[in-house]
């Protein structure tokens, strides 16, 4: 028995023909649906990239205890468990975060692994001179990564040189080399169709448009302020990259046909999360609550034991189920710490495995769904406190925990899943304040696009009780209950009605430069320039308080307060922004 997982990054299910898209060119995803069980109610759990991968290894939610980080010493890893039981495991990937501080413990869990360089701003080719860059739609973030990306693109002139192509080349090589062998697991994982949406003319011409403005294939994660033509163009660029992914998927299907692998090889095609491409007037992920475009995921599985093909499955499943499914397929028992469930019977007969599932981002909304209703619970009070991370691996996405943060670390009581090991409890920080969005409740049956949030006390009570049940099963830390207003006995505190003003305010257009006084110092001035002037720094401290001493401040120095407000909604309230602008104008 063998198993292959083909994993994409940022795959929005609504762009796929098997999930209703009629305008995208993805014939191999159609073909895939004809050969597999297609899941209609699959949800991610922990966002974004490495938190999602941690739960795919461990079968347990990450986001309640930890932000972006490596596998911990006490974590179970399905690939490593398979390796220990004599199943050969191999990873081929171009996902550069595996080689950063916050992802460095994942790939060594496999027997062998191959990495292909150049995606996004991967620190790959060294050029001291700045690259030639075309006129580009204005952006506020990732300047260094964008510079590096333009350098990297010089080495991808042909599709054969692209890291996605090289990743699938390596996966196909492993398949050809080992197709006659037994008991192996291959993970073919590409960073695409994650931004930047860089592909080639053969794919771009599938989605013609009349756009003649500045270059635009990499949006900031923020509210949409671009023109309708720019929005359409960016969606077309995403679709072009999706079609390139479709071609790579087809190569895997072709080789499985050629080598007659369907009789004894499981195939899983999945993604870590989706992406907002202008829906709900947002780009990207992380800041707003996780709408369906971001967290309701495509999933296709072929199990040679049941041989279910061309059928749909409606049962609620999650990405925490993937590790137990792989383990069960090879006859390896899952550990007691795994919250996910093997999907063998769900694939075979749509047998349910759970009543509800959690999903979220560390420090963001905590959400629960039963497959029909979605409840997104914000923090109960402004400020998003208390918040703590629990870790023995104090690294971030691109760096290490600051010494200032570690000075506040204390040894915490072990959790049920840490195998008797105490962790460090360190102050947690989030890039947004979910209080500003309010708590949201949706009925996906009557409102699949989530445009009309509900106020329904009875339904909110039921969903909040499901949430508490899952928090307890996950051994959530006490800070989460307090932050969410779920402490105390009796019925849960209801937040939707209480926070309705925030829900309505969050639907308003984002603030723009013209909304504020024109002055020498303004909310459009970079924060670094403001704090260089004592009087302006005093204004910021008067209005922003503890935010000025946050470990996130160094990242904010190149940005203006207006950019921060649009990128990290809720971190600076609209009224606070207006008050700061008025005070700065008086200086």
What's this entry about, in short?
The protein has 587 residues and is of the alpha/beta class.
Descriptive account of the structure:
- With 587 residues, the chain is an alpha/beta fold.
- 30% of the residues lie in helices and 15% in strands.
- The protein has 19 helices and 21 strands.
- The protein has helices at 27-35, 49-58, 78-84, 143-153, 163-178, 201-204, 228-258, 292-295, 322-329, 344-349, 403-406, 457-473, 478-483, 500-506, 527-531, 534-544, 553-556, 561-567, 574-585; strands at residues 2-8, 37-43, 46-47, 88-93, 112-115, 184-189, 265-271, 276-277, 283-284, 296-302, 311-313, 317-318, 357-361, 366-369, 373-377, 388-391, 395-396, 399-400, 410-411, 424-427, 440-443.
- The strands form five sheets. Strands 1, 2, 4, 5, 6, 7, 10, 11 and 12 form a nine-stranded mixed β-sheet that branches. Strands 3-13-14-15-21 form a five-stranded mixed β-sheet. It has a three-stranded antiparallel β-sheet with strand order 16-20-19, with no helix packed on it.
- Helix 1 crosses helix 7.
- The N and C termini lie far apart (72 Å).
